[in-house]
């Protein structure tokens, strides 16, 4: 008997059973602009439905990182798909774009239909939360590249904005107010360090350590998608800058929106830092500087607005139910972030 793909570790028939799953998930996220039915070689989308005069396409790509290893350890795969969408969509929101469609990549050593079903349901949920369509995806079975039972995710978001409405930080001025919008937890950054702390300190994922949920549930809390907050800010105030706080923390991300001659001064203590961060810091004996470089420390998005509009900005940014507060201001300086 000659060799076949199955002897090499790839089950084509099992892969084919996933096609209806993707089609069903994509159909649930259909919005105006989607052309044709899902399942072809490419996803089609028309901008004409949205009446853009001078549209600029805005794209972003990201993954979920080693948070996936915690999902595997806990046997919960229904939230990492939301993370995947959030990490990509939050990036394009910073440019003032409206998210339109999303594609995903799922690579594993051996396809596990139940796991993929949970992940795809999460992706569809993430798309529904931000009002974009899931227009396609790729599922790859790669024995020898991934260990059995492990997988990786990548996502790709595309949005659009009117050229005249793009946000790039160039309008930021000295004296502007900085609004911090809270995170829903660690989001999807710093998990290699988190896993090391769990290992070294022998922390239990089933214990709550004085928090409202067990540690495992808190660590798997999906990344918040800031579409509603961004739209409300654009509608009610002059939004001059928006920073998504991911890997690199507040110092490494907020500086990316600062124009030449401007710095950002953040006041430590002006926002609430969830207890999970202090748990990680104490159990890992991590310096405060390292914490700020590795985690969002309770702020998922920073908005820069004119100082006179900060009250309106607080009301708008809190419209989706998350906490928001004035956390700092723009000062003269060399495009860096100082936390005092």
Q: What is the approximate shape?
A: globular
Largest sheet: 6 strands, mixed
Strand content: 15-25%
Number of domains: 2
Gyration radius over CA: 21 Å
Mean pLDDT: 93
Distance between the termini: 71 Å
Helical content band: 25-40%
- What is the second-level CATH architecture of the largest domain? Alpha-Beta Complex
CATH top level label of the largest domain: Alpha Beta
Written as H for each helix and E for each strand, in order along the chain, the element string is HHEEEHHEHEEEHHHEHEHHEHEE
Q: Any idea of the CATH topology of the largest domain? A: Phosphoribosyl-aminoimidazole Synthetase, Chain A, domain 2
Tag the structure with descriptive keywords.
4-stranded mixed beta sheet, alpha+beta, 6-stranded mixed beta sheet, 12 helices, 340 residues, 33% helix, 60s Ribosomal Protein L30, Chain: A, globular, Phosphoribosyl-aminoimidazole Synthetase, Chain A, domain 2
